[in-house]
Amino acid sequence: MEPVIIVLIILVVLVFIALIKTIQVIPQASAAIVERFGRYTRTLNAGLNIVVPFIDTIRNRIDLREQVVPFPPQPVITQDNLVVNIDTVIYYQVTDARAATYEVASYIQAIEQLTVTTLRNIIGGMDLERTLTSREEINAALRGVLDEATGKWGIRVNRVELKAIEPPTSIQDSMEKQMRADRDKRAAILTAEGTRQAAILTAEGEKQSQILRAEGEAKAAALRAEGEAQAVRTVFEAIHAGDPDQKLLSYQYLQMLPKIAEGDANKLWIVPSEIGDALKGLSGAMGNFGPLGGGSGNNGKSVPPQNNGPDRWEKPSID
Questions:
Q1: What is the domain extent for residue 78?
Q2: Residues 3-34: pLDDT tens digits?
Q3: Of 145, 171, 197, which residue sits at a domain end?
Q4: What is the pTM of this model?
């Protein structure tokens, strides 16, 4: 009885193992390669799959999602014989699980070596300056070569990025010095331009100020001249309206004489010839007031002037 139980237990275990081997669950975005007696049979997609137990085996499970693989820095020689270290990052995706399994032994290693050789080929035709400024060009050329070469492996290269391009230390020091010199040069140029612009604006401001000041002075002089002319016209009209006689004019002449003699620099001045007529009219007017106003040593008779020419009179100096 006991051997029968043992056999039944063995059969149950074998059935259980067979069921486990028969039912294969493949996760989403994954694929599995099935071989029968060592030969490729089919590719299992995501979901529940049935295989023949103990005959079909799962050779490889492949992730179909996009993968990111960074490669270590690789020394590359430029056209001008400078060694630069370049870090690369590859974004790839498996599109054919069968080709990725049977067409290449290790597609990661194959992509890495292909990237290195392609980089050396591309960078070898560029100098250092172009290498540092042509990342997009290098990425596009590298992606084209890799995508073409990895197509038969069931791999699609989506993107290739250069993480870093590191020139030698001596070249980096020279580049830093050059950049510092360029920045100093640009700063000096900007300072000179600012000083020049400030000087131009200052000169323009002074010019406009002088022009406005001259215009203001000219307008002020014109207004003063117009005011003086108006004043003269007003005085002239007032005099003519008052109809002055000779006596009033003679008196005004005498009032102006002290003003003419004002100032220490006036040593010699000319008496106009009209002053005789003014004195004559004034003496005649004073003679009409009697002995108080008309007897100046000649019994009240007015003495006519000896000549009508201008008289010289020298102002006495005060020592």
A1: 66-171
A2: 778 878 888 888 888 788 888 889 998 999 99
A3: 171
A4: 0.52
